[in-house]
Automatic annotation (TrEMBL):
<feature type="binding site">
    <location>
        <position position="10"/>
    </location>
    <ligand>
        <name>a divalent metal cation 1</name>
    </ligand>
</feature>
<dbReference type="InterPro" id="IPR032466">
    <property type="entry name" value="Metal_Hydrolase"/>
</dbReference>
<dbReference type="GO" id="GO:0016788">
    <property type="term" value="F:hydrolase activity, acting on ester bonds"/>
</dbReference>
<feature type="binding site">
    <location>
        <position position="146"/>
    </location>
    <ligand>
        <name>a divalent metal cation 2</name>
    </ligand>
</feature>
<feature type="binding site">
    <location>
        <position position="87"/>
    </location>
    <ligand>
        <name>a divalent metal cation 1</name>
    </ligand>
</feature>
<keyword id="KW-0479">Metal-binding</keyword>
<feature type="binding site">
    <location>
        <position position="194"/>
    </location>
    <ligand>
        <name>a divalent metal cation 1</name>
    </ligand>
</feature>
<dbReference type="InterPro" id="IPR001130">
    <property type="entry name" value="TatD-like"/>
</dbReference>
<feature type="binding site">
    <location>
        <position position="123"/>
    </location>
    <ligand>
        <name>a divalent metal cation 2</name>
    </ligand>
</feature>
<dbReference type="GO" id="GO:0046872">
    <property type="term" value="F:metal ion binding"/>
</dbReference>
<feature type="binding site">
    <location>
        <position position="8"/>
    </location>
    <ligand>
        <name>a divalent metal cation 1</name>
    </ligand>
</feature>
<dbReference type="Pfam" id="PF01026">
    <property type="entry name" value="TatD_DNase"/>
</dbReference>
<protein>
    <submittedName>
        <fullName>TatD-related deoxyribonuclease</fullName>
    </submittedName>
</protein>
Amino acid sequence: MIKYIDMHCHCHEYSVEELSSFIEKNILLVCVSDDPASSMKTLEIRKKLEITPCVGIHPWEAHKYNIKHAKNIADLAIKNNVKCLGEVGLDKRFVPKTYDHQFSIFEIFLEAAKEYDLVLNLHTAGAWREVYELLVKNDINRAYFHWYTGPLNLLEEITGSGYYVGINAAWKIQEKHRKVIKHAPLENMLTETDAPYKYKSLELRPDYVVETIEYIAKVKNMPVEYVLFKINENYEKLFKSPL
């Protein structure tokens, strides 16, 4: 069944009732986690609703945890048949002071992703190239650059390597993201919202993916139905699983 896809939603910040209302709108929620506690909450949500769970430690939270915590979360994914680690990655833009520690945590997730062929749902602010080169170095097969706003020349390398980039509803107010939409191949795009994050004047919500599909179709001069189909196809390729 064709669905709208929110590839990056912090579901643990919503009530089950709120999440249900989005799912009833035919939206598939890929639910990322920020830390051990939210990772457990994401797994609890999966028991009640049909979602795609991701567990991880956000780079902004990495300073609170150690390598053992990261290994425990990787083990949690394996034991619970979770196919996605996220939100994980590196951030040089907002929290550069903790970069070295972020790196040590991220290395654990890279190792797990390589060994068990897991999807990485990536935070890469200001560290787009560093993360990309680590993916290549570690032979990572499945990776998604959440809300990509990095250099366009690197975008070509990312998509050329078969990785995916997140198209966020922030295109409404973010010019550099509109440039990414223009230049990224549809075959490497997935839609997302980062809900319930508030970006400037925009309060992001999962149902914004509907407008994002329409905007991509307009920019690419393609039928909306075709864009929606390709986004679904991209999800299935990334997760190696039918919707």
